[in-house]
Design goal:
134 residues, alpha+beta, HIT family, subunit A, 3 helices, 26% helix, binds adenosine monophosphate, catalytic activity, HIT domain-containing protein, HIT-like_sf
Length: 134
């Protein structure tokens, strides 16, 4: 996609701090400066998000997510990771090229990476009946 910033990062039209790359995926530093070590993993082929991503691309993407997560824990002094993704504008997606955020974690780092929900409006059983796959 010509106007996609992450496609441009993938084809090197726009520079990035590339942590890792292979035939199918690219991993680079998120420049938001919101948390130490914030990394983005993207597929090279354009998919907007998980809703239109084909299975093979998804598989490559998650394989790289695992590789980078293991690298952070095995070689960079971290103990765990948070994986974050917004699929769709209503979910908070701001860049329309599928990406997984990785936030490296260690005990006592004082990072609050979990969303703050307002509490459910509907009973869990009611939601279950709506959501169950029949
Ligand atoms: P999301 O809101 O989940 O779509 O996340 C988009 C992320 O892309 C944000 O965390 C931005 O900081 C990040 N971002 C946008 N442009 C760039 C860029 N040129 N290089 C690195 N990160 C970027």
């Amino acid at each position: 996609m010509n106007d996609c910033i992450f496609c441009k990062i993938a084809d090197k039209t726009i520079p990035s701090m590339t942590v890792y790359e292979d035939k199918n995926t690219l991993v680079f530093m998120d420049t938001a400066m919101d948390v130490d070590g914030h990394i983005l993993v993207i597929p090279r082929v354009h998919a907007k998000n998980i809703l239109d991503c084909d299975e093979e691309t998804l598989s490559h993407l998650m394989s790289t997510v695992k590789k980078i997560s293991r690298h952070l824990v095995n070689s960079c002094g971290y103990e765990g990771v948070n994986l974050l993704n917004a699929s769709g504008e209503s979910a908070g997606q701001s860049v329309g090229h599928f990406h997984i955020h990785i936030v490296p974690r260690k005990k006592g780092d004082n990072i609050d990476a979990w969303p703050h929900f307002n509490g459910a409006e509907h009973d869990t059983k009611e939601m279950f009946r709506k959501l169950v796959i029949k």
